[in-house]
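Explain this protein:
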Amino acid sequence: MLIAVAVAALAFAVGRFSTFGSSGPLAPANDSAEAGFARDMQVHHAQAVEMAMELYRKTEDEDLRALSYDIATGQSAQRGEMFDWLVQWGLPQAGGPPMAWMSGTGDGHGHGGAASDEPMTDAEMREAMGMASDEELARLRAAEGLDADCLFTELMIRHHEGAIPMVDAVLELGSEPRVLAVAESMKVAQTAEIDAMKAVQARLGCTG
């Protein structure tokens, strides 16, 4: 409970004190890559925090305990900052089909309502973002010991890998300096965490 309170407080504090190089009429528009990224990544980060705190509570592996703490606190802080971006830009926290803002990337990313008139279902959105299903989250909550450690690394690696295309898209399409800086640092951190979790999988002998 104390960890949960600390994470929430950190998210609020970081969000309130974030700053931008642009404001007023130069702020990103409602249909901008920056706004879409801030909205979708908040959803994505929320699940990462949930999974990380679940494992932090019960793992006995010190490497995973430290990693899950870093993920929970780091991504909670980023969620708070992204929430505040939208507040500062005068934009709603929700708007537009998930991932549709990525349709303008040079490598042909097309998600959400970008290539179809049909909006994505919640399940389709989760799959496109590499997120865990409700069933997988239930399995993680029920798992203990080695099973929990291995399942967490499997789900979180896929989760992180699902974030990279969104990061690449905003780096290609966006122009707001603070957003680009956060996205770049996010890519570096999550790539390193993927490598760390693969190393843990090898050490623990996790399979498929």
